[in-house]
Amino acid sequence: MSTAAEQERSQKFEQQRDRLRAEHLKPADARPASSARGLHHTALVSSDVERTIRFYQDVLEFPLTELIENRDYPGSSHFFFDIGNSNLLAFFDFPGLDVGPYREVLGGLHHIAISVEPRKWEHLRRKLIDAGVELIEHSEVSLYFRDPDGARLELIADPLGEMYGSHVL
Prior knowledge:
Blueprint: H1 4-24, E1 41-46, H2 49-59, E2 64-69, E3 77-82, E4 88-93, E5 112-115, H3 118-130, E6 136-138, E7 142-146, E8 152-156, E9 162-163, E10 166-167
Parallel strand pairs: 1-4, 5-8
Antiparallel strand pairs: 2-3, 3-4, 6-7, 7-8, 9-10
């Protein structure tokens, strides 16, 4: 049960969302086309290249597609996984640098949501459990968990452009 203060805060922010929707959100048929073609890749930091490959390729079944030297930091690796729909999840490692553990910060990453088919969602859920990965399930279509370096991921069984049965695209 939420407190009166939480309810008041929630109401205040709902009013703000209402104002922002009214001012900025256009109906789908009135929105211009995006200037972007899509997400080429999102790059995260890995503390251990092989451990990251084993997690993303072996557990999550995202094929490794390339492993090259990071052009910005000699000795560092830049590697990519296919997450479907011509999208990539990329990683850098920075050997010799003390980058510290994963943290959520302003301008940083909260989580990456990756859409998978419902049957594949069930299959990956079982693989994550068998691998000892701690999961949080939400709305019977979302699995939240952390990768070996602490980055938060979501596997969502909703199709691209939908969230919990509502169109967001």
